[in-house]
Specification:
403 residues, alpha/beta, Rossmann fold, Argininosuccinate synthetase, chain A, domain 2, 5-stranded parallel sheet, 5-stranded antiparallel sheet, 14 strands, 19% strand, elongated
Length: 403
């Protein structure tokens, strides 16, 4: 590969990307454009980011506010699909990467870069997510992945490199956790968590109270939806999806909602252990499931549940910018036309319990479902129904009995 002259780096200000700026300049003799996306990771992570990037060698820095785009065009699609990876992971990191990589490509093209770079490790899923996005949106740009090139083999090595090049970092060799935070969740990896036999240390949790310390009195929250999108909390309508999610993050976190300890199968072939906190997202997903149980017919609901697994796999593996993901979104958009209504949840020490479900599109008929026999259902019809669906079973049973 011909050495590029100008590189757009996906920059977070964390350990990896902080040392990549001087490393790129030292090894490629190129300009570095740092691109950072604000997707709700919080003011502490963003504070002084531009100055830090410039001080460590970047020639240009772009900090883009993408919170509303992230919520409305990415997170609400997850909700509408009901996508959960391996029963537990609400895809907080996975769904953010395509958006960050897209904006990185846009800045790269706008500023005349001939390459893009990222700080993803050679063992992780994120390298796939970033690079599949590059291939989809700008396949002509060269890709630099330092973790697949340099001599740094561990976070301890990266810390040493940072010290040698006077790069300020916020982690230490005695307390190393790799974290990724946005408006949807925060993930924790590394340190004691690398051994799945170890219990997750209490110190890692940042967004949620321990269920043991959560209020002794249950709380309740009502979430309103329109066509599968969250629009209100406790009757208050939100124009901003970001504000709605911040409200639910606070409510869920107060009651210890949204902690997940997961051994997952990475796309690159290995198992890894991570802990995730998704307080508001857990409430939204639970409420959305209850609403769809009320408004979707059996066949559509069951088929949608199958496709939700496929959709979660696509997002987890980095196939966001693909025709298949777009086609699945069209299906979920169609099935969400009736996902309008309100669901009330009771929150108690890390647990979520549905209390009330209401929708103008409810398919629940009290007359039919009641144990009291009404005019809308003739129990005698069940005999013919059972005889017809049971005919193959009856024949098989008769044959087996003869043998």
């Amino acid at each position: 590969m011909r050495k590029p002259k100008k590189v757009a780096l996906a920059y977070s200000g964390g350990l990896d990307t902080s040392v990549i700026i001087p490393w790129l300049k030292e090894n490629y003799r190129c300009e570095v454009v740092a691109v950072c996306g604000d997707i709700g990771q919080g003011g502490e992570e963003l504070a002084g980011l531009e100055q830090k990037a410039l001080k460590t060698g970047a020639s240009e820095v772009y900090v883009e506010d993408m919170r509303e785009e992230f919520v409305s065009e990415y997170l609400w699609r997850l909700v509408r699909a009901g996508a959960v990876y391996e029963h537990k992971y609400l895809l907080g990191t996975s769904v953010a990467r395509p958006l960050l990589a897209k904006r990185q490509v846009e800045v790269a093209l706008r500023t005349g870069c001939d390459a893009v770079a990222h700080g993803c490790t050679g063992k992780g899923n994120d390298q796939v997510r970033f690079e599949l996005t590059y291939k989809a949106l700008a396949p002509h740009l060269a890709v630099i992945a330092p973790w697949r090139e340099w001599d740094i083999k561990s976070r301890e090595d990266a810390l040493a490199y940072a010290a040698q090049h006077n790069v300020p970092v916020a982690v230490s060799a005695t307390k190393i956790y790799s974290r990724d935070r946005n408006i949807w969740h925060i993930s924790h990896e590394g340190g004691a968590l690398e051994d799945p036999a170890n219990a997750a240390p209490d110190e890692i949790w940042m967004l949620t109270k321990s269920p043991r310390e959560a209020p002794d009195k249950p709380g309740e929250v009502t979430i309103g939806f329109e066509e599968g999108r969250p629009v209100s909390v406790n009757g208050q309508r939100y124009v901003s999806g970001t504000s709605l999610l911040e409200t639910l993050n606070k409510t869920g976190g107060e009651h210890g909602i949204g902690r997940t300890d997961l051994v997952e199968n990475r796309f690159v072939g290995m198992k890894s252990r991570g802990c995730y906190e998704t307080p508001g997202g857990s409430l939204i997903m639970a409420a959305h499931r209850e609403l769809e149980a009320l408004t979707l017919d059996r066949s559509t609901l069951h088929y949608k549940q199958k496709l939700a697994v496929d959709y979660a796999g696509l997002v987890y593996n980095g196939f966001w910018f693909t025709p298949l993901r777009e086609a699945l979104d069209a299906f979920f958009e169609n099935t969400s036309r009736t996902a309008t209504g309100e669901v009330t949840l009771r929150l108690y020490k890390g647990n979520i319990e549905p209390v009330s479900r209401k929708s103008p599109y409810s398919l629940y008929s009290l007359d039919i479902a009641s144990f009291t026999m009404g005019a809308g259902y003739d129990p005698k019809d069940a005999l013919g129904f059972i005889n017809l669906i049971g005919l193959p079973i009856e024949i098989q049973g008769a044959v087996s009995r003869k043998k």
